[in-house]
Amino acid sequence: MQTVKVSIDRSFAIGETDARLFGAFVEHLGRCVYGGLYEPGHPSADAKGFRGDVLGLVRELAPTIMRYPGGNFVSGYNWEDGVGPADKRPRRLDLAWMSKETNAFGTNEFIDWCRAAGIEPMLAVNLGTRDGDAARRLVEYCNFPGGTELSDLRRAHGWPEPHGIKFWCLGNEMDGPWQMETKTAEEYGRKATEAAKMMKWVDPSIELAACGSSGRTMPTFGTWEDTVLEHTFDHVEYISLHTYLNDYAGDTEAFLASPDLMDSFIDEVVAIVDAVAARRRSSKRIMLSFDEWNVWYRTRRRSEGRTKLGWPVAPEILEEIYNMKDALAFGGACISLLNHADRVRSACLAQLVNAIAPIMTETGGPAWRQTIFHPFAHFSNFGRGRVLRAEVASPTYSATYHDPRGTADLAFPLPAVPYVKLAAVHDEAGRTVTLFVLNRHLDQSAPVEIDTRGFGALELSEALEMRDDDLSAANTRESPDRVRPRALDGVRVEGGRLSATLGPASWNVIRLAAAA
Q: Which of the four, 92, 198, 205, 361, has the lowest number of CB atoms within 10 Å?
């Protein structure tokens, strides 16, 4: 491959990354909660039933905010079922994932787990089978100090201090026919507006995200966002986006190009929300919460183990095993999020443990890192700071990405995909520049020359590479470190210029520090 030329300048930035950009998601789905982060009796579990081995991996992964309790699950969830004495909580059928919910783990346990992990909680309210009244009652239960029925109920349950939850989601994927009590945009917009009003009357300090369309391939996409924001614009700070990258077609080049469609998706939603603002002559800018994103395809269809018969408790469903190829596409998605830090202020990897997750566990046994764990840990630990506007001159290739919707097969032509995708983040406090670089060429190494301006002399702090000659290589219980980052050799830094050769089909992280 010909040399890829990159230039970055300290003076030209896209925006500062918000701490909430590096979030994840815990849903009552399969073994995400039960047997995942919560397993009383596990050898590593603490007195509250939280698995210590999982907590250790979560701290290494370093998510900053955690969405809960759904997802599809929230559209049928009664929050009252999950508070109070555990032995008095009802067992219910969960229609989202065709399983039984014991409610042994609920809102207060989730808050305790977030505190143990050092993570900000994000709660979603049920706007499917319930309404704004239930939502404002949950805000009162969680956030009001005391002296009312619901705040005193929380105190009686053993949590005397308010939880102080600041970020709330107004339902989930309400245009999806799979959702309990699907809504039209008009129906949802009105319901979300009334819920938002009451929730903010209880606690004016909270921030709210309205549901965007369930995905870019939905027939409702675009008109949904426009209509919903016509109702909710004055009451919300965010609108949500969801996407799952897939390789149903078995086309690796197209799969690795798919993160570029995330870029287009974000740009389109920004255009829609700003058009709503323009019609209102408003200077307010609605920000984006990309609160579900991941690679997901092997276990996505109902015929592929999406649910189990017999209404089991915590069934082994959606337990996607990620390989090296998945980690590359995943890393590309991380780069896309960084390069839209000016408008994507919150994002949640879906999900955290076992169900389409970076962490896998064996019930009663060990926990280990999936391949996608590593790009996310790099993204979260090293992605804090000012994202610089990088100019990348790279050879390109063409691909067509397929995203099935029901029986339809939607094709997205990508005529000029750069082989090298890159994001650069400047941490002014730490005096570092971190480069996240994906080489999408399957067979050729990528010589890269990077010109950095305005930083003075830099020196190499660390260089990591993740690649494998076998793109199907995965981490397992028996081989938990089969795919992992290793040192990237041959990186040269002279003054403000860097040169390196990136292996074919590789995820790379290069960290530069101000010279002493």
A: 205
* β-sheet bridge partners, residue 460: 512
Find the DSSP H helices in 74-222: 107-117, 132-143, 149-156, 185-202
> Which strands, in side-by-side order, build the sheet including 446-453?
391-393, 4-9, 446-453, 497-502, 492-494
Distance, in Å, from the CA atom of 143 to the CA atom of 140, rounded to the nearest integer, reads: 5
Cα separation, 295 vs 71, in Å, equals 16
pLDDT of residue 237: 98
Q: What is the pLDDT of residue 184?
A: 98
Residues 6+ apart with CB under 8 A from 79: 106, 107, 125, 126, 134, 138, 141
Residues of the chain with pLDDT under 50: none
How confident is the model over 320-372, as pLDDT tens digits?
Answer: 999 999 999 999 999 999 999 999 999 999 999 999 999 999 999 999 999 99
User: Of 205, 214, 192, 239, which Cα lies nearest the Cα of 345?
Assistant: 239
Residue entry with tokens 């949500």: 240
Tokens standing for 210?
A: 């309205």
Q: Decide: helix, strand or coil at residue 164.
A: coil
Q: Strand runs (DSSP E) across 364-419, as ranges?
A: 367-369, 386-388, 391-393, 396-405, 408-418
Q: Within 13 A of 195's CA, how many CA atoms are on the CB side? A: 29
244 forms beta bridges with: 294
Answer positive or negative: Cα dihedral of 320, 324, 329, 332.
Answer: positive
Element (H, E) at 451: strand 446-453
Residue 409: its pLDDT value, please? 79
Question: Would you say 357 and 54 are in contact if contact means Cβ atoms under 8 Å apart?
Answer: no
364 C-beta neighbours (distance < 10 Å), count:
10
In whole angstroms, what is the distance from residue 400 CA to residue 414 CA?
Answer: 6
Q: How far apart are CA 330 and CA 318, in angstroms?
A: 17
DSSP label of 514:
E
* Strand 386-388 versus strand 13-16 pairing type: antiparallel
Give residue 407's pLDDT: 59
**Measured at the alpha carbon of residue 49, what is the angle toward residues 315 and 372, in degrees to the nearest 5?**
55
Choose among 319, 318, 320, 324: nearest CA to 252.
Answer: 324
Q: Which residues pair with 514 in a beta bridge?
A: 458
Question: What phi and psi values does residue 413 have, to the nearest 5 degrees?
Answer: -70, 135
The answer to whether the predicted template modeling score (pTM) of the entire model surpasses 0.85 is: yes
pLDDT, position 273:
98
d(CA 13, CA 379): 18
Dist CA 199 CA 401 (whole Å): 41
* Residue at 242: amino acid letter: H
Which residue has 């047997």 as its token pair? 35
Tell whether omega for the bond before 56 is within 30 degrees of 0, i.e. cis.
no
Q: Which residue has the tokens 């909430």?
A: 20
